[in-house]
Amino acid sequence: MLDFTGINCPNCRKMEGSVWSDPEVMKRLKENFVIVSLYIDVHDVDLQPGEQYYSSVLGKQITTLGDKNVDLQIRVYNANVQPYYFFLDANEKRLIPEGYGYNADVNKFIKLLDTALANYTSGKYF
Q1: Which residue intervals of 15-82 are DSSP H helices?
Q2: N or C: which end of the chain has fewer CB within 10 A?
Q3: Cα radius of gyration (the chain)
Q4: Prior bond of 83 cis (ω within 30°)
Q5: How much is the pLDDT for 112?
Q6: Dihedral angle computed from the Cα positions of residues 11, 15, 17 and 18, in that order, rounded to the nearest 10 degrees
Q7: Closest CA to 3 of 32, 34, 30
């Protein structure tokens, strides 16, 4: 599960505090998912000179980890909001066709996790 998030993102903290903390959600996350949190507002972690590049999407040189994560979110996943979750397999194939943004409905998130797992188990990709 890719978790596009931010250090200063109030809705990200709300999702973690009221949805992820739900016992049924937490059980699923711990047992069936690897969470990769990509922070979009980490501008004090510089990329090495060889890792820096120009982003045509952002129209600027990418020099920080946060900028790299924003570029990835927009360029590959066509989204630029946080929190935003994408469900992928180990080969980066999508298990759910679209991302999932802020929604504090625990049951809806549980259904999403169950669908992602079922798609992974059956080999259904988008």
Answers
A1: 23-32, 65-77
A2: C
A3: 15
A4: yes
A5: 98
A6: 120
A7: 34
Q: Which residue in this structure is represented by tokens 């505090």? A: 17
Tell me how far apart the 2 most distant CA atoms of the chain are, in Å: 45
Dihedral angle sign, alpha carbons of residues 117, 109, 37, 77: positive
One-letter amino acid of 69: N
Query: What is the rounded average pLDDT of the residues 118-123?
Result: 97
Question: 112: which 2 tokens?
Answer: 């999403």
Q: Would you say 88 and 94 are in contact if contact means Cβ atoms under 8 Å apart?
A: yes
Residue matched to tokens 């992820």: 20
Q: Are 119 and 32 in contact (CB under 8 A)?
A: no
**Model confidence, pTM:** 0.93
Three-state DSSP class for residue 68: helix
